[in-house]
């Protein structure tokens, strides 16, 4: 009896010690393995609604790595031991070409990631691969190419989302096009049952070749895409398209803001998009008619947009991510350069907006003394946000009260 009682007490003490004390200030928790070069954090939910963070790890001397992920059973306080997805070995870590996981209601999981192509037609070409687990991530099938057409030798800057019927959709940039105008083609494909992506089709052309794309499925089933377009061969502004028929057709692209940014190069920072009951909300980087991170909203499903609003005083703030939390507030995170003791570092910025889009708070999340980049965000509840980012070769996460 005493032995059993002692076992219960020790067990309970162990359970308590694994959870953070409520009166201890929140801070960054390292998620990646020591001795590895970690990057590319991504936040999603599994089929049970649990928060999942994935990332990439590699040796410091290697160019490529492997995807890992961890699951939280306590609303983002702690995470499981990292689980490696061996089928993703060879993934090229690129935080704009961000590897992603998608958990489907049927228990299958899809890992979508980029690798180097090594094609003689373009030595910088990439390839988008995916691997599927049909048993909630326990066993993974062999990696498959998203594009099997031999005319397609360069694919990258992809995104993936769950459709209302339980299938997965993907978009990506592709070299295949039927115009001589500069830019890549934006392709769309959907899975079939537990099989892979099928019936790929182009939905836009003249897309900026080196900025991430955004695919977002709203609560009413509308499918939204956003990307940086090349307009009149010189202007690189953000545009939006929507499908109200499940991806059968998409509207014509409409600029979310007439920045008129003329640049002969790739900014390497794409758009962010979310929605709530008031409409669509966007964040992006531009150097046209202002410089830095901006915000706009649309209450008519992308036909018209509010006047853009600057989110950061740092002129080179980039890489925004945006998320809706319960209660319909909107949160934007980004990274921005900061000078510290004569050197340049990078810190994370965060802004909270009301459901209607008015800024409620705006501040920095990380210290100026560290190098923190490429934040991603996920809602935990109406008052708490989970933010993950890369900090000097580590992937870390924080629970942030908002």
UniProtKB/TrEMBL annotation:
Residues 58-260 form the Sialidase domain. InterPro entries: Sialidase, Sialidase_sf. SUPFAM superfamilies: Sialidases. Pfam families: BNR_2. It comes from the Bacteria. Gene3D superfamilies: 2.120.10.10. This is Exo-alpha-sialidase.
